[in-house]
Amino acid sequence: MKVLANPEAASILFNKLAEELKGKDFEIVVGPSLGGVIIAFEVAKYLGLKCAFADRVGDKRAIRPRDVLRAGMKVGLVDDILTTGKSIKETLSALEELGAEVVVIGVIMDRSGGEVDLGIPLVSLASMKVEAYKPEECPLCKKGIPLEVYGSATRKG
Predict the structure, then answer these.
(1) How far is CA 46 from CA 22, 66, 104, 125, 148, in A?
(2) Does some domain include residue 115?
(3) Phi, psi angle pair for 82, to nearest 5°
(4) Does the N-terminal peptide bond of residue 147 adopt cis geometry, omega within 30 degrees of 0?
(5) Among 17, 84, 96, 109, which is most buried by a count of CB atoms within 10 Å?
(6) What local confidence, expressed as pLDDT, does residue 86 receive?
(7) Which domain holds residue 104?
């Protein structure tokens, strides 16, 4: 999320991701809110395509604007970070409901170290294994060290 605060640096990453996705045969770029919206816009602009985003509606996601997608349309799905795949899986479900076909997923950072398999080819600019803990198992939590939480899927309140 911090790189998104620096448009010049972020633009370099978005253009690099667009270059990596070029030629993957998709017609539209879609990203989940929050981080994926900006990336979808920038990658689509770079590739000369339309874009959409998957907005959170209750416990699901809905594609906005819906009228840019049609059944059978090939989609490139992008997001900032892949950790567990929750946001991407929710977006895949929303696209599947509309009859769209995701042909590639692109992320800036794969924090699963390649362990999350979404059943669709994945392009990541960087990959590393980041340990995730439940609060009761977290070494920092046990020491009373406060955490900063980024990302809409994990934010409370």
Answers:
(1) 10, 22, 17, 16, 32
(2) yes
(3) -110, 120
(4) no
(5) 17
(6) 93
(7) 2-131
**How does pLDDT run across 95-120, given as a tens digit for each residue?**
999 999 999 999 999 999 999 999 99
At a CB cut-off of 8 Å and minimum separation 6, what does 33 contact?
Answer: 53, 54, 55, 56, 61, 152
Question: What's the confidence (pLDDT) of residue 157?
Answer: 40
Q: Is residue 26 situated within a structural domain?
A: yes
State how far Cα 124 lies from the chain centre. Answer: 11
Kindly report the pTM of this predicted structure. 0.85
Cis? peptide before 65, omega within 30° of 0: yes
Residue 95: φ, ψ to 5°: -70, -40
Q: What element of type H or E holds 106?
A: strand 101-110
Does residue 136 fall inside a structural domain?
Answer: no
Number of domains in the chain: 1
Rounded Cα distance between 37 and 47, Å, is 15
Mean pLDDT of 53-77: 94
Kindly tell me if the per-residue pLDDT of 151 is higher than 60: no
Please indicate, yes or no, if residue 157 is contained in any of the structural domains: no
The domain spanning residue 76 has which CATH number? 3.40.50.2020
Nearest Cα neighbor of 153 from 64, 78, 59, 30 is 59
